[in-house]
Amino acid sequence: xGLCFPSDVTGGSEEPQVFRATLQTTAGxxxxxxxxxxxxxxxxxxxxxxxxxxxxxxxxxxxVKNWVVQFGPSGFPSLAQVYASNGCVDGGVRPxxxxxSCFYLDPVRRPNVRGAVAFSVDTAASVCKCPCADPPxxxxxxxxxxxxxxxxxxxxxxxxxxxxxxxxLGFAPFGQVVEGMDVVDALFAGYGEMQCVDGMCLEGHxxxxxxxxxxxxxxxxxxxxxxxxxxxxxSRLDYVTGGAISNVSFGSAGLEQGDxxxxxxxxxxxxxxLAVGIVLVASAILAACRPRRRKGASRDGDSSEEDDSGGxxxxx
Length: 316
Hints:
Helices cover 20% and strands 18% of the residues. The protein has helices at residues 40-51, 77-80, 163-166, 181-186, 219-233, 264-286, and strands at 18-25, 28-35, 62-63, 68-71, 103-104, 116-119, 150-151, 155-158, 175-179, 201-202, 205-206, 209-213, 240-245, 248-249. The model is unreliable at 247-268 and 288-312 (pLDDT under 50).
């Protein structure tokens, strides 16, 4: 097990039931209180990634005022691709290939109010209703329909109360910012909305805020070139430098792309992830579009047709 070979998320862990995670960033500290009762599987995945220092170096690559702040992919492409959960084979990244890397979101028990933290997914490109190639193992569960939300490592923080926009889509908060929301508000937002995502921008500005430009990173470049791409083209982005849980420090900026002081453990992890990344890229290249059988049932058991009008943190 490890970051490159994640274990399945079951939501069955009980300890700690409630904990606080201090996210250290270039703009200051942000304290997130996580409650397993709100979204047990999301809380389990967050704790696993956070305590393994996965988020160190991760850029806040999408900051849209009066909407959300988005972050989560590792700055190392070979590691980020392990947890890719959106799309089909867009950008050469085939999602959810590594067993245990993706998981189904919990039902919404906590509203998407200001400061609420949740995993981000693209409901318009759900991996389990992708028409190309074979579905990943996570999609084999008979408990969920093809349009059920599958997440990996992407997170967002609500900048305003978005409950009326996101709750009904299935985005389930697992935590709440209890300290440092002023830091979240101050994260660099000059680049605005992401580029090259259909429906994201209207006439050169974000569909969520007319004052926000569409000059942000290309989503798939983040997964294929990581922090090398972001540092070169979007150098002003704030990012995660480390963190702590219950006063136990585990992180630093040691996973910053290009840092010459990485420890041997991180180096070994990266080598393993590089091997996994090569396999993922090879799989994407060889994948061919072919029809596959849909489950044909929704969560309530009724037959359903594929709905192309879905939404997401990106498209809603």
